Amino acid sequence: MGVVFVMDTRETAVEFGFELALAAQLEATETLVSRQLGVAVHGRRVMDLVCIEPTAAFDERVALTAESIPAAAIESDVGPGRARYWKSAFDCHPERAERAVERALACGFFEEERRNGRTYVRQATRYPDWVDRVTGIENKPDLGRPGALETQLLTDVKLGLLDEVVLATASRVTGAHRNRIPDEVGIWQFDPETGEREVLREPEQLPVAEPGVEICERGSARTEIRIATVPAKRSARRALAERAYGKGWRSYRMPACARVDPDEHGLPFCPWKGRVVRPATECGPDCGGHDPADPPAFDPAALRAARTAWKADPEGQTHRQTDLERFSE
Question: Could you tell me the pTM of the whole model?
Fold first, then answer.
């Protein structure tokens, strides 16, 4: 008989609530906050929270579009001047270029014109240099269950894609814990109930302007690494910032239950459970307190727009319906 693994949904729910509470607290500090984003160049690494401190050019980015602009479109030879034939303006796989053009047109970053049955594109406006510092936050409420924490943080430090990395926990941090955490990583102690955050150790600046060593796979007998060049890291940072801008952190849905009562931050609080719940895994007919009803009112875009500089419908945004067949030639 095989071994059956059972997911600890309670632990997952605690981590989810911790993450949302911290995101809500950080949102008030005038930084751009997003959740569950890839922070790798060659490998697979997902960071719990990403915070971006913008430059003075942030207003220019806000005016462009509420959506993510594809990095391939930004890095292409398409500029705000003369329109160019889209296929000759990209140095990447044609399918990636095609998707980037479609998305850039849909969000208003590109404008198009047709010549002899071909699509030519130009930037609607120049892309601003709006990203200053990028901070990654790994959430581990219970340090008694560290999982692959040490390898994850070591990967972040050696790669140097982010300016700084922080470990956030609700646990008491001992000397033994500190010894397993790279010295470059900052440590926060956070109470999701009160919103109080104490900085136990400041993070160090990571070498974002130098090549990085990315740990792609680490085992007992072999560690696979790849070198991340400075241009590759620069491109990955730009793509990360754009994903963060378009996604935000309220990417969850409210459950179809009359008991759930979203708080002022839009967190799915359940009075029956007495805490924030994770709708995807905790809510539904299998819950003893489930009371079927339409999901409570929840407008994540309106909440984000009311609490941050992000705009759901910026004045400079143009709306287009993208014809997916325009590239079929």
Answer: 0.88
